[in-house]
Write a structure and sequence with these properties.
Layout lengths: L3 H12 L3 E4 L3 H6 L6 H15 L5 E4 L8 H17 L3 E8 L3 H12 L8 E4 L9 H10 L2 E7 L6 H4 L9 H12 L8 E5 L16 E6 L6 H7 L8 E5 L1 H4 L5 H14 L6
Parallel strand pairs: 1-2, 1-8, 2-3, 3-4, 4-5, 5-6, 6-7, 7-8
Helix pairs in contact: 3-4, 3-11, 5-6
Amino acid sequence: MKTFGARLRAASEKFGPVCVGIDPHPPLLRAWGLTEDADGVAEFAAICVEAFGGAVALVKPQVAFFEPYGSRGIAALERAVADLRAAGTLVLADAKRGDIGSTMDAYARAWLGDGALGSDAVTVSPYLGFGSLAPALDLARANGRGVFVLAATSNPEGGQVQSAAAAGGRTVAQTMVDEAARCNADVEFGSVGVVVGATLAQAPDLSGLNGPILMPGVGAQGGGPDSVRALVPESVFASAVPAVSREVLRAGPSVAALRAALSAIQDEFAFLRR
């Protein structure tokens, strides 16, 4: 069984190191001429699956935009995850889960198990302590899946916690990167990634991570090739996975237009390939 890290690296070499989001938030639903209900969300997701399946390294459905529609919204998410994975496309569930004990174990089984929501990877929050992520890390390792740990996010509020000094004078963000790196030791390329905003003024030291670096904020939020170059050491360019949502999604609902917008972003980040 290939690890998630190995599969992501292979997909990035084939398609370019870009992650595209599926974010059916109300303004986009309206812009696409879709209804702001479960039917509209399901149609939005289906169009994205048609456009992105088999065409990109990683697809990141934003779980929050499906949840307001209850069971029918979750059913639309389940279909999107299943259809993308059936097309051979890696899926990252952007769920940002974080808890302790049996609750974290349940989250891990939901997103990294073999159930209807089971994805190739999931985003997690370590701010109940990195050790609280153990159930997700253990299940990801056992099932050949991946985990992306929030480390240095681009929202202004994040610095209140992430820039604070931790043990030994390291920032909390650096501590999270270093803990993820420990999980990736002794493998060619690890499956425990970190989330580092592409719009940050400064990033933690990523040179020793040996795992993927998800970088949201590309496009409409202001991040781009220059900011990624500034934040990521050249020695680990191949680990960076810029994540884009609105910049591509606003080209919809035309499948051809979505693919063209995605292709343009992939070309911009071709310099990250090994």
